[in-house]
Amino acid sequence: MEYLLGLDIGTTHLKAGLFTLQGEAAAVRLANTPTCDLGGGRAVYHPEELWGRVSALLRELTGMLQPEDRILSIGIASMGEAGLLLDPDGEPLTPIIAWYDARGKDMVDGWMDSFGAHRILGITGLAPDHIYSLMKLLWLKAHEPKALSRAQKWLCMMDYIIYRLTGEFATDYSIATRTMLFDINRRAWSAEIAEAAGLDLELLPAAHPGGTVVGQVTEAASQSTGLERGVPVCTGGHDHLCGAFAVGVFEPGKVLDSMGTAESLVAAYSKIPQLTADVIKGFGVGCHVVGNAYYLLGGIHASGLCIEWFKGEFSSPELTLAKERGVSIYDVLIEEADQSPVGAQGLMFIPHLRGAGPSDPNPDSRAAFLGIREYHERKDHMRAILEALACEFAYTLRRSQETLGLEASKIQAIGGGTKNRLWMEIKAAVLNLPIEIPAVQESTLLGAALLGGLGAGVYRDEYQALSETYRLLRTYEPEPELVRQYSDIYEAYCEVLPLAGEISRVISRHKG
Known about the structure:
- The protein has 512 residues and is α+β, with helices and mostly antiparallel strands.
- It has 2 domains: 2-254 and 445-456, Nucleotidyltransferase, domain 5, CATH 3.30.420; 299-439 and 474-509, ATPase, nucleotide binding domain (Nucleotidyltransferase, domain 5).
- It contains 18 helices and 24 strands.
- The strands form 7 sheets. The protein has a 7-stranded mixed β-sheet with strand order 18-19-17-16-22-23-24, with helices on both faces.
- A hairpin with a 3-residue loop joins β16 (255-259) and β17.
- α14 crosses α15.
- The longest helix is centred in the C-terminal third of the chain and has 30 residues, at 480-509.
- It is globular, with a radius of gyration of 22 Å.
- The termini are far apart.
- The mean pLDDT is 92.
């Protein structure tokens, strides 16, 4: 049997999967991403620990292969922005700084004042935000100048895994876009930005389109992973865009809801949308993983994380019940939330555990439950979280529709959140749009694997890859009565959101 192998280096989980050439998942393995929380909004990944877990996942998969089986290629998806510095011997000089690490906040205002927000937008398609790699590099320059002076390369997460597999320094256009150092007009690193930042362009890896063979599995990587030496390794791309590719969201007018730890709206364009600094506030524009397509991306930084946080901090009784019944705790939480009425008895949640997204791109915005009364139970809190996440996504979508004329007749959704029936029903009602769920649940993994297939020549182009692998699982249609009820709730959410933002600003000023 011939397989395509995909890797997904995510914020919460690391995943590896074998797929048939028809897009069927033959085997998928996952492990927790080894995150080290340093406190104060800082978080890192230790490179050797990360590689050890990726290697272990690959050994699990290769150990399942029969002698006649063959892996044709490897494609890699990953979170964006996170990265590390390597010395001239290829050894880490720093840990991998998480995309959401707060240290870059201190660099944003000064950089934008000196370079110009409008100028940076025109080159990179990005508006001011601390998450981008450039802000991490500027922080290192200010606080760890010795490490930066010794550095040979800055590698984002996908790039680092490519390096460990092949010994080559390479990235793709979609990951490069998330650094704030890439000129999306020329599809090349920006000498202008690098010079203004005092950075050497040689610090950055060669950038390629998604689905480009950039190396082969080395003997050392073969020993670590069980992969056959010489297997082609290809650029995949930013995880949300790999998922978009797998469900066909690379043509104009198509919209993706990628539901992971963070949630992203992805809309495809044939050319760079004409944006102003006011319009793009909270959104990003960049190069897609396939063809000459571009994308608009706006995200909820802590979507799935809100549910994970509530589960971990407040759901001990549900965890006990789930163990007694032999079911997932998520099943119990959804079952309980379904018993709470629409509107959660007037309880409202603001899902800003990691700051606000396009609704108000304020990294200091805080999450909050509002309207708590003595009769509210955990089931109401859980339902309020799901309703808030649906409203936040609807706000993001409608902002893009109003400012860019984006039209959507349906939403295609991928990621772990699509397994949450109640969440999907609420979201379809808030959006008043049908939501399609693909048959292959691991769309990001599949997209990475398909990009590997493009690089290896398995498919003629992205259209053939899609036509041979995409299948629909189900569609959530908006229920008319729920649409009516959630219309009022969404309106209330939009009124409360800026007020909650002001409360967060007061707290930030007086946090001591």
